[in-house]
Design a protein that fits this description.
This protein is mainly α. The chain has 15 helices and five strands.
Length: 382
C-alpha cells in the first residue's frame, strides 16, 4: 500500500497530527526550517539569562530538572549545571523498566555533576493495571510513564517551593501538536491534556480500573491544581526554546564529557545508539507504533537527520526497510509480566490501526534479543 509521505523527510500521513503544505512538506520540517532560518538564538539566550535572573539564588535550589537519564535530559542537566551554573534539584519518575547500563549512565551523571537527586517509582501492581488499561483503550501501554514523567516533577516543585522547571527539547523539534519554534513553549496543563495523557485524566483512569484501586493510588499521575501553581508562580519551560537543539551533537558531547554510554536498542540502527537507551520495552512500544501506523523509530530518526542535512533520502529508505517493523524479542518479557498471549496483544493493537494502514502479521520478521535482556528485572510479574 502506498502512503502519502513528506517530500523532504520520510514522515508518513499516519503520524499523529501531521499535515502537509502545498509542496508536500510536513509541518515538522517546516518548524525545523523556522529553527534554522528564522529564530534569533542570540536573542533567545538573552531571554534565558533574564529568566534565570528572576529565580537564581531565591531558595535552596534554583530550578528543577526532570531527569530520565536519556540523552535529552542528561544534556539538559549538564547544560544547567556546567554552562548556566545553576543549582538544580534533579527529579526522576522511574517507570520501572530501566535497563542496567542506563542505570549506570544515570548514576554516573548524577555523581559527576554533583547534584541532589530525588527518584520515585510507583507500585508495580498499580503500574500493571495502568499499562493494561491504556493498552486496551489507546493501543499505548505507557500512560503511567507519560503522566508520571510530566506530573511528578511539578508536584515536587510545589512541595519544595521551587518555581522554575527546565525540560529538554521543545515539541516543535519532533512533533506536530500545534507548538512552534516561534514561541517559548510553556509545559502546562494545556499541553498535558492535549497529547501527554492520551486524553485520559487520572480521575478518568480511576473509573476504568478495578475497585481495589484507590483514588490516592493515582495521585502521582494527577496534574496539580492551577491555583497552587499560580500562587508559586511556576515557570515550566523547555531549554530547547532558548538554545538550538541538536540531539546527535548533544549526545556526542555528553559521551565525551560525562562518559555517557551508547547502547544497542531494538529496531534502531547501531549508529543511533544514543536514542531511547533507557527502557526495556522501547522495542515493544515501537512495534506497537508499526502495527498501528506502519512505521517505527528508524523512520523518525532518519527524518531528523534528513532535516539536519546529515542523511540523504535514498540511504534513509534503506535503513527504514532494514530496521522498522520487526517483532522485538522483548515482547516475550512484556507479554509474560502482563499475562497476555501474543494473539491477545495483536488483537488489541490492530484495533488501533490508523487508516490507510492495514497491518499484516504474517509478514513480520523476528529480531534477536538485546545483549542485556537476560539481566533485566526478573521480579516483574511475580
Amino acid at each position: 500500500m502506498e502512503f502519502k509521505e513528506c517530500t523532504k523527510c520520510c514522515v508518513m500521513e499516519t503520524q499523529d497530527s501531521i499535515r502537509f503544505d502545498e509542496d508536500g512538506q510536513c509541518n515538522v520540517c517546516n518548524q525545523i526550517n523556522v529553527k534554522q532560518e528564522v529564530v534569533n538564538w542570540d536573542e533567545r539566550l538573552e531571554m534565558l539569562d533574564k529568566l534565570i535572573a528572576e529565580y537564581k539564588g531565591e531558595g535552596q535550589y534554583d530550578c528543577i530538572v526532570p531527569f530520565s537519564g536519556g540523552k535529552d535530559s542528561t544534556y539538559t542537566l549538564y547544560y544547567i549545571v556546567n554552562k548556566l551554573k545553576l543549582r538544580p534539584l534533579v527529579v526522576c519518575f522511574d517507570h520501572g523498566f530501566y535497563r542496567p547500563q542506563h542505570i549506570e549512565n544515570r548514576n554516573r551523571t548524577i555523581n559527576r555533576l554533583g547534584v541532589d537527586f530525588i527518584t520515585f517509582r510507583p507500585s508495580w501492581k498499580i503500574r500493571k493495571e495502568l499499562m493494561l488499561e491504556s493498552l486496551k483503550r489507546k493501543g499505548d501501554f505507557c500512560w503511567h510513564c507519560h503522566c508520571g514523567v510530566y506530573v511528578y516533577p511539578i508536584q515536587i516543585a510545589l512541595k519544595y517551593k521551587i518555581p522554575l522547571i527546565f525540560w529538554g527539547q521543545p515539541d516543535a523539534e519532533y512533533g506536530s501538536y500545534g507548538y512552534t519554534y516561534e514561541q517559548i513553549q510553556e509545559v502546562d496543563e494545556k499541553q498535558f491534556n492535549r497529547f501527554i495523557n492520551l486524553g485520559i485524566t487520572a480521575e478518568d483512569m480511576h473509573g476504568m480500573l478495578p475497585d481495589w484501586v484507590a483514588k490516592e493510588d493515582l495521585m502521582p499521575f494527577s496534574y496539580p491544581d492551577k491555583k497552587d501553581l499560580r500562587d508559586l508562580k511556576v515557570r515550566s519551560v523547555h531549554l530547547g526554546s532558548f538554545i538550538a537543539w541538536d540531539p546527535k551533537s548533544m549526545a556526542e558531547e555528553i559521551r565525551e564529557v560525562l562518559d555517557w554510554k551508547y547502547d544497542e536498542v531494538e529496531g534502531i540502527p547501531p549508529e543511533y545508539g544514543y536514542e531511547k537507551v533507557e527502557c526495556m520495552f522501547n522495542g515493544v512500544r515501537d512495534y506497537l507504533k508499526y502495527i498501528k501506523r506502519g512505521f517505527a523509530r528508524t523512520r523518525h530518526l532518519v527524518s531528523i537527520d534528513i532535516r539536519d542535512g546529515r542523511l540523504d533520502r535514498e540511504t534513509a529508505k534503506k535503513l527504514i526497510a532494514q530496521y522498522d517493523g520487526k517483532r522485538p524479542a522483548s515482547l516475550d518479557t512484556f507479554l509474560r509480566i502482563l499475562n497476555l498471549s501474543e494473539d491477545e496483544f495483536l488483537e488489541i493493537a490492530m484495533e488501533h490501526c490508523v487508516a490507510p494502514h492495514v497491518h499484516d502479521p504474517s509478514k513480520v520478521e523476528k529480531a534477536e534479543p538485546l545483549w542485556d535482556q537476560g539481566k533485566w528485572d526478573h521480579t516483574l510479574g511475580v
